[in-house]
Amino acid sequence: MVTATDRSAVGFVLSGGEAHDSSEGTALLDKIIRVPEQKYILMDKAYEGENMRSKAMEKGYSPVVPPKSNRKDPWEYDRERYKQRNEIERYSLRLKRFRKIFTRYDKLDVLFCGFIYFAMIVDAF
């Protein structure tokens, strides 16, 4: 999920439970349209791979992601800006208060996505 603030989502993609998030993250990064005033993209450690960071820089973002602890050549990142990532987590938690989302009763992706859109609209008000 890509969010602009703790109240608005830009886009999301469903993936299989066994799939790693980074492959879906690169595909989602290709789909979003860059807003000129957005300079940074805050990412979880799951997205700290070279291909994801280079894709973010290619799109014009400055990636803010901490390196994994086992990295041989860790990089510096803006720790204060990374603290804003909790807004994304808060948004996800607000959506998960809908029981139908956190339990995933719907078997069809189209129905599940429809209810996620519905929850986003309800959460906006």
Automatic annotation (TrEMBL):
InterPro entries: Transposase_11. Residues 7-101 form the Transposase IS4-like domain. It holds the Pfam family DDE_Tnp_1. GO terms for biological process: DNA transposition. GO terms for molecular function: DNA binding; transposase activity. This is Transposase. It comes from Synergistes jonesii.
